[in-house]
Amino acid sequence: MRIAFFVNSIESETPGYTTTALALAAIQRGHSVVYVEPGDFILRPDDSLAVSVAVLPDAPYKTSDKLHAALKDAAKQKKTFAASDIDILFLRNDPSLDATDRPWAANAGVMFGRLAAERGVIVVNDPDGLAQAQSKLYLQTFPEAVRPSTLISRSIAEIRAFIDKHPKGCIVKPLQGSGGKNVFHIATATDSNLNQIFEAASGDGYLIAQVYIPEAKAGDVRLFLMNGLPLMRDGNYAAFRRVPAKGDVRSNIHAAGTARKVKVTDTMLRIAEMVRPKLVSDGMFLVGLDIVGDRLLEINVFTPGGLIRLADMYKTDFAIHVIVALEDKLTLRRAYGQAMPNSRLATL
């Protein structure tokens, strides 16, 4: 099969990204891999969809570093394919990274992903589902039993009142954003830094205030789900604990957090089961749940990362398991044609 990975930019990809691990696994299983960027789609006057792609040469890549170097070379001379020449379009961009400097690019994957799905390409995660999830507001559509108490507002008075009701303090962060940017722990409503924090974080729009969960001091747990179920291979769950740096409330690896092995508990599995029906309904093929204690803090449906780190921890290649699942979807598409909608096929 030919699988296309849609990313923010090829230039910003690294050997350590999960997308690189997935591309390597696909090539090792004999598939053709291409990369697509936001400006690469072409909708022609006859309503045909084409795409300009960087084609990874077929080669026995042994490491992600070798593949990444080949990708950089391939990006220098792109080729144009009809959408019908692509079997799987895997949307792996982070819209928040383009929201400020390239707002036209932030929604390109969803918009053109819909067009590709209409033309028979299997698109994961489903673009209609992703359209619902383009901010952290998506978490509010899941059962209250798995979410921390949350306020979403641009009013500092509302946020102060919310913090005042929670003696353990609150986490304040932008509604849009990723990577731990502008995430703050506010201990009390009278915190002298609250005005400055509000000004810094609200520059990105609405703010989320969430009740602080003391277990967060030990970090959060990233648990991968595939087809709505915990991702497992060789008896290991695809899960790790993200431990914040000393004095930091953020567990994000990009924010100097560290990754450690974790034992997946019954509580984590209950949370996964609680969110499974909606994720399946929304066509969310591969997602990352960020769990603290008995609460779900975020659901990463665009670019859940960590598969290379997990492979090193558990000596298990979870990326191969993901590619096998895509092969199964292609078998179903060829059997059923477009009688089965993309959103359903995405999580079968």
From TrEMBL:
Pathway: Sulfur metabolism; glutathione biosynthesis; glutathione from L-cysteine and L-glutamate: step 2/2. One of its GO terms (molecular function) is glutathione synthase activity. Its cofactor is Mg(2+); Mn(2+). The keyword ATP-binding applies. The keyword Flavoprotein does not apply. GO terms for cellular component: cytoplasm. Its EC number is 6.3.2.3. Keywords: ATP-binding, Glutathione biosynthesis, Ligase, Magnesium, Manganese, Metal-binding, Nucleotide-binding. Gene3D superfamilies: 3.40.50.20, ATP-grasp fold, A domain, ATP-grasp fold, B domain. Residues 136-327 form the ATP-grasp domain. NCBIfam families: PRK12458.1 (NF009110). It catalyses: gamma-L-glutamyl-L-cysteine + glycine + ATP = glutathione + ADP + phosphate + H(+). This is Glutathione synthetase. The lineage of its organism: Bacteria, Pseudomonadati, Pseudomonadota, Alphaproteobacteria, Hyphomicrobiales.
